[in-house]
Amino acid sequence: MLAIDNTNLQNVEEESWEDILKLENNNNTLLDATLIALETGNLAPLIKEDLKYTIQSRRHKQGQKKLKVEIPEEKIYELTVEEQMKIDRRREQNRQAAHRFREKKKITSSLLFKKIQEQEADNMKKTNEIRELTEEKAQLQKMLFEHLLVCPNAKQCIRFQP
């Protein structure tokens, strides 16, 4: 049992020295995080390192081993030939649909432009017709007035005047 205790004691001493060396390295990471925080004004790296130290010290006090977090590398997934063909087909369908939409929009736009031009031409024609009819009305009224001045039956003509 004594041999086991010596082995355990050596393991504890080795772990302590390893922890001391790791703490020195961690102090460098804490220093780096502090410098980053001062340069950028972002306290997140400093808080992150502080939380790491707090967790590690609590685990050490409870006699637990150092917590090691390993982040697995992201797997890069290769597409199968079928998946790539499916993606390519969908992209081509999308291109064709976009082309059809643009062509339809051009046709609609040109039809509306032609309709606007026709409406403006019709509006001008009607405006000119209104102007001509107004001038003709004024001439007819003038002729009627002149006729009423010389007409012997003027009283009968005045009855029909609007």
N-end to C-end Cα span: 135 Å
Q: What string, H for helix and E for strand, traces the elements in order? A: HHHH
Strand runs, count: 0
Helix fraction, binned, reads over 70%
The number of helical runs is 4
Ranges with pLDDT <50 over ≥5 residues? 1-14
What would you report as the Rg, rounded to the nearest angstrom? 48 Å
Structural class: mainly alpha
- Mean model confidence by pLDDT: 81
Q: Overview of this structure, please?
A:
It contains four helices and no strands. α1 (2-40) runs antiparallel to α2. It has helices at residues 2-40, 44-61, 81-150, 154-159. Helices cover 82% and strands 0% of the residues. The model is unreliable at 1-14 (pLDDT under 50). By secondary structure, it is mainly α. It has two domains: 6-61; 99-162. The chain is elongated, with a radius of gyration of 48 Å. GO terms for molecular function: DNA-binding transcription factor activity, RNA polymerase II-specific; RNA polymerase II cis-regulatory region sequence-specific DNA binding. Residues 116-143 form a coiled coil.
Label this structure with key terms:
single chain; 162 residues; mainly alpha; 2 domains; 82% helix; 0% strand; elongated; disordered N terminus; bZIP_sf
SSE blueprint and pairings:
Blueprint (H helix, E strand, L loop, with lengths): L1 H39 L3 H18 L19 H70 L3 H6 L3
Helix pairs in contact: 1-2
Short description:
GO terms for molecular function: DNA-binding transcription factor activity, RNA polymerase II-specific; RNA polymerase II cis-regulatory region sequence-specific DNA binding. By secondary structure, the protein is mostly helical.
